[in-house]
């Protein structure tokens, strides 16, 4: 298609600091740069708004200022008699009508990309007949089952023109569940390093929100096995606590309990990924759940070798164990500590793996990934 398409990227929300939101804003800029007309749409505005920039070359819309909390149908006399439930129901459908108005303006050949399954509940009610829709799953197949989203993915994305996972293995798993529309496209490399980590600072670094599923507690347990032998090294954990401080307090208490006071730094969240990563020599990922971990992609781009739990196919897609990083069995704290120790002790191995990591992530260069998306768009309209 010589003329750019109308593309609508729809997420649960578009204003928090998260992997899906980082992906959405980056793809919106990338598609715009390649000549498409992009509209980024969030279902609801979050309580805490992250600064994703000010110079947006694409349209943005939020359908609801707060979660409507309604049901799509008012069933029973009691529900229909409740003023609160009627108001929530009406607000939910108001969002659908607003989304339908936006989508009706699309030119022929437009595509709706629904990045999260909850948002699909609005999309499937607002979608005009002349548009194609692509559903997405940004977590691994197994993570979707653990989180309880798997049945909703099968139900709401069954009618999509495509269901995209981030890895072939995850797409194959969904296909075995009867999702004949399953395919995959990985996330693009969304950072452009101006410099690379020198890998001589005695720092293990971790970036990611403070959250149980991100497994910072497991990282602290692994660090407790290394810290006594390497008093010259520091563990630095960047991240914001979205639980109102509950998770941070839990992690700080665990730090004290493990005798790690003074051996772990908590600088808080950062938007300066380059400085944070270049100040470290090893990146550690101990998540309990991931999809296609953006944090690993970022670290590898800056030449920081990673040690990661093998918790999703995306980890293996990114890291070739023993070549550009180290992958250990999920949840095995002893093995994780040993892998960290290996990279801490061997500076030459760190540098060798760091160089290999920088080269490896070029497979996910933005224009290569965008071309795959455009090929999919063309295929949908054949």
From TrEMBL:
One example GO MF annotation: glycosyltransferase activity
Domain Glycosyl transferase family: 200-359
Claim: Iron-sulfur is one of the keywords in the record: no
Pfam families (alphabetical): Glyco_transf_4, Glycos_transf_1
Source domain of life: Bacteria
Broad enzyme group: transferase
EC number(s) stated in the UniProt entry for this protein: 2.4.1.-
Glycosyltransferase subfamily 4-like N-terminal domain ranges (all copies): 18-188
Keywords assigned by UniProt, alphabetized: Glycosyltransferase, Transferase
UniProt name for this protein: Glycosyltransferase Gtf1
Species assigned in the record: Actinomadura macrotermitis
Chain's gene name: gtf1_2
